[in-house]
Automatic annotation (TrEMBL):
PANTHER family: HEPATOCELLULAR CARCINOMA-ASSOCIATED ANTIGEN (PTHR14614)
UniProt keyword list: Coiled coil
Start-end of Low complexity biased regions: 353-362
Stated name of the protein: Uncharacterized protein
Taxonomic path: Eukaryota, Sar, Alveolata, Dinophyceae, Suessiales
Amino acid sequence: MASRHVSHESASTFMKRCFASPSRMRLLCSKKAGREGGECLAVSVEIAPAGPVVEVQETSMAEGWTGCRFSPSALWLALKVAEPRSLIAECSAQAGSLKAIEFGCGVGLAGLAAHALGYDTTLTDCLPGHLKNLAAHTAKLRTKFPKSAPLRVRFLDWISDVGAHLSCSVDLGSPENVASSASSDWECLEKEQLNSFDLALASDVVYEEHHAVLLPKVMQRWLKPGGCWAVSLAIRDADMSCRFLEQLDAHGLVPSTAEHMIIETACRSDRCSYCSVREAWPVDGPPLDRLRSIVRGVQVATWACCDLAWGARPHDIMGNGVLRRYRTRPEADNNDSWRKPKQKGGTAKEKAAPQPKDAAKAAETWLAGGPKGLGGLNGAAASPGIGLASSKAGPGTNAPTSPSSTAQDEDEDTDLAGFSGLADAANKVWDDLMARKGGIKGKQDMNSLFGLAELKDAVERSVKRVNMLQQQAESASSSLEEKQTALEELRRKIEAGASTANVRWKLGDMAVRRGKGFCELSMVQMDVQPPCFEVRMSTSGTIVSTEYEKLVPLSSQQQMAARSALKELEEAKKRVATTEDGLVQAQEELRQQHQSLTEQVEVKLKEPMAPPGLPDFGYLQKSNAQPTKADAAAYPEVKGMKEDLRKPAAGAAAREASKDQSRAESGTASAGNTLPRQ
């Protein structure tokens, strides 16, 4: 296994580079060493000029989550713990054995530094990957240093510990937020240890808002009055950091005056707004107001220094508090809004039912949005354990209503987006389409309607199949719960009448881990006092370390009964997995069929249709497309016609004859256009 040693001089030089370039604080301490040594790197750090040396075992990103490699914040805190003139060292000068605890320890650099200084140390975390790595590493340390102070690893989930009435939101997608003491196979922190620790440590553990709220509560719960605490943080958000400071003050962890304040910075005042403002602080001002004024406001954009230490004397409620900060970009927009269910915009009484003339518009609006507005599909696709509870409801209609029932119908929510089942939504769109069938003409349109009807029936059949598979999944889940209950009853029965006297353990033996479940021995360390066993939990498969006294041996008959119960439990788990896979596949088929139906219905709804009793729009368009012809004249042309009913005189007759001859020669007159003279 690759290893690396870091001397105190190298660690101090590295921290000075981090102080000079705050962007380096975002990277891991052993980034280059991690590339050279692979994912599992053993690092030994000399935390003081003359020792001691702290050994940590880093782990891979796949095994852990955050904290699988120690950060500059953890290194700075470890150096501060070992500093002889620090407030922590002043607290350590008290007589008697001192106890230390580290919250969210990761690889445990700060906690192991306190252990190297003689503290009875407890390392806590909630991620199984970190707990597994710490258990193996601490077992090696106990073997290597048998006379050292006690060192133990315990499970501690902040939400389960003090988050019963948490008011802020929690991202349930993060692995550390789904941990639970009830489902953990690791030893939990004993309640007898409440308010018993002299020193509380935490480094780089505030990433979300609920971390800033819960950490002060956790420290107050486990740290004894008069103890010291030290926290090294990377301030990523001004509001979240102010929330953390306010919670510290609310739980009595901030001194009321500046008498006990210790300020440490590592940059020049002309480069950092924090340092320039710090020089003008009044000596007797309240520290919380000063800290809040620095964390919040425009000064955040010009931060350059890295360290801010503050605290109180040992006889106050708490001791030394340390915050690490550096300049960061503004927090990006929250892209996890899809995790949280959106509230419906209006209720049935708030939204009016669409009128018949707006039915097509409502259907087109729903179809444009797709199935996202239907809670039945989204809920079923998200979790195999959730079915279409409303899939058997009757279809909606668009039948004409009488004036007396109009007021009652207006209070009903008939919007398509309000349906909770795909069958209801499909029937609603189908009824609206069939209400306009008066405009359907031709064999091709009728065939398309028949095809849509078959597709609608397929959607209804898929809904019935999903419901049937949902019932099967529920039945399999009930059977699994029964098997788990039977196994738990068997464990309690064996544990109640157990005897640990004169037990000879060997690898592969089954045992009962008190309060946890059945396990199988995978490794025995008899050279450590008390003996330490590594066991594999039978139900989860995880490997954990436990003490000799916490194992209960099984007789041959008890082992046979336990193996039979575990076999039945595994078969029940397989049935649950099979039914859930079938349910997910059926839900996906239902979604695809529904999408195809909505696309085809959308096309039909977009085609213009005439109301019942009127000509088809296509016929009117065809008639309007023909060119118009001018009508023939219904009367004769009389232009140039003359009529004289008087008898002409002799001279007039000669003149008229001359005019007639001139018209004949010019071709301007026509015999058909003149009337005979009298």
